[in-house]
Amino acid sequence: MVTRKAKAQVPYRVLGIDPGGSITGWGLVSKAGNSLRLEDSGVIRTKRGAPFAFRLRQLHEGLSEVLTKLKPDDVAIEAVFHAEHARSALQLGHARGVLILAAAQHDFEPFEYPPTTVKKAVTGDGSADKEQVRKMVALLVKEEVKGPADQSDAVAVAICHAQAGGFAKKLRNLGQKDEKKSLGTKLKRRRG
């Protein structure tokens, strides 16, 4: 009788980010086969009352430290959603911008997921509340995520991408090939 050794799978490690101007959550999830594991999570807190530019710098520096320490395979960030006030939406956009810049400076092009997609990937319901997300995250990684909702939301973003990551990466690569191809065609037409 011939027995085969199971091939050890290298875990796919995703850093999820839940952006915010005051508190940004982050969570590192690894996936091997169908198994998800929470490796680490936390928050980046900005100094209350500090000028907004300095808070943005704190977010940038904080995420840079996390990326340097954890060395994920991919980064995923929650996309902008509607905000009650235009100023809040603008500030969230700035926060996302410096977080995306920090990821880019570490050679990542973050994958972006709308909140409803993240909620649906984790709970099956795109309108799930934060407590439902927290409970399902704990079930999926077999560990309770302590800390503020921003932290468990970031872990949910990481889970969302870990589940769809290979497919999302292939789609991105196909899109980039198509963009390069169409750009090349446009340049040829202009020259011709």
Please describe the structure with a list of short key phrases separated by commas or semicolons.
5 helices; Nucleotidyltransferase, domain 5; 19% strand; 192 residues; 5-stranded mixed beta sheet; alpha/beta
Would you kindly provide a written description of the structure presented here, covering whatever features stand out?
There is one protein chain. This protein is of the alpha/beta class and 192 residues long. It has a single domain (12-191), classed as Ribonuclease H-like superfamily/Ribonuclease H (Nucleotidyltransferase, domain 5, 2-Layer Sandwich). It has 5 helices and 5 strands. The chain has helices spanning 52-70, 86-105, 115-123, 130-141, 149-191, and strands spanning 12-18, 23-32, 35-45, 74-78, 111-113. The longest helix has 43 residues, at 149-191. The protein is globular, with a radius of gyration of 19 Å. It starts with 11 loop residues before the first strand and ends with a helix. The relative contact order is 0.18. Mean pLDDT is 87; it is low at 182-187.
